[in-house]
Amino acid sequence: MSTAAVTGAPPPSATVYVRNLEERIKVDKLKEALTELFAEYGEIIDIVAKTNLKAKGQAFIVFDSVESAQKAIDEVQGFDLFDKPMQLAFARTRSDATVKRTGDDDEFESHKRRRLAEKDKKKAAQAAEEQKRMKRAAAASGAPDLSVRPIKATRGAGLKSSNPAGAAVIPDEYLPPNKILFVQNLPENYDIDALTMIFGRYEGFREVRLVPGRRGIAFIEYETETGAISAKENTAGMTLGDGGQVIKVTYQRQ
Q1: Is 91 in contact with 34 (CB distance < 8 Å)?
Q2: What's the burial of 249, exposed, middle or buried (CB within 10 Å: 0-12/13-18/19+)?
Q3: pLDDT at res. 219
Q4: Which of 75, 44, 37 is nearest to 62 (CA)?
Q5: What is the pLDDT of residues 120-179, one digit of tens each?
């Protein structure tokens, strides 16, 4: 029975998602084994396997055609690799390699922005859920909830409270995408013109806003999330000034 026929399964694509792989195998050895196994079903464009904890035991096999991917799923489903039965399905999204191969540069950049936005939203949701779990655990034990920051009496203009009504605090790095970026650790001599030169290169740039009385921070606004996402991904961690200050770029807290 075709995987595509299973209710709720992702639509057919040229990318196969493989899970239940042996996590102790090194990535290079895993890729070599996957290449040897799947090469007979069609031309392999790319194999993606990562070492981070959440991605271990998973891989993506990118074929040159949907037919090759379908054949691989049908014939390799349940096959033991390193003594573990593999579980195969079509990937839920197209791979970077597929989009780059079949589309133009604009389509590839748009695909990357959508993927990064989804990644940021997923991180934000996971962080919020973890904060809720910590609050529930603290309430059950009767201990004070140390994950919630105290509200400061005064804040700089334009800075929103990180603890509205005692809500769980999402770390800056996991805030969901929006049209405004919050930039920190800027050199003191960087003004609106200098920041416009950096952030004005990205799609839909609107303005730079400095905070009166607060040095080293700024807000950068774009017309859409797309421009903000692209700017964040390309400027986060950039070094500026004579001292080589590493700037921090996150989305504005809503």
Answers
A1: no
A2: buried
A3: 96
A4: 44
A5: 666 666 666 776 777 777 777 665 554 444 444 434 444 554 444 444 566 777 778 889
For residue 208, give Cα distances in angstroms to 119, 130, 137, 179, 190. 26, 33, 41, 12, 11
- Cα dist from 26 to 31, 49, 56, 82, 248, whole Å: 9, 10, 10, 12, 33
Sheet of strand 87-90, all strands in order from the earlier edge strand to the far edge = 44-48, 58-63, 15-19, 87-90
* Residue 249 falls in which region: left (phi positive, over 0), alpha (psi -120 to 50) or beta: beta
CA distances to 7, 97, 109, 145, 205 from 181, rounded to whole Å, are 40, 29, 20, 29, 11
Residue with tokens 């961690």: 237
Q: Nearest CA to 218 among 181, 244, 246?
A: 181
Q: Is the CB of residue 37 less than 8 Å from the CB of residue 86?
A: no
Give the Cα separation of 202 and 43 in Å (integer). 36
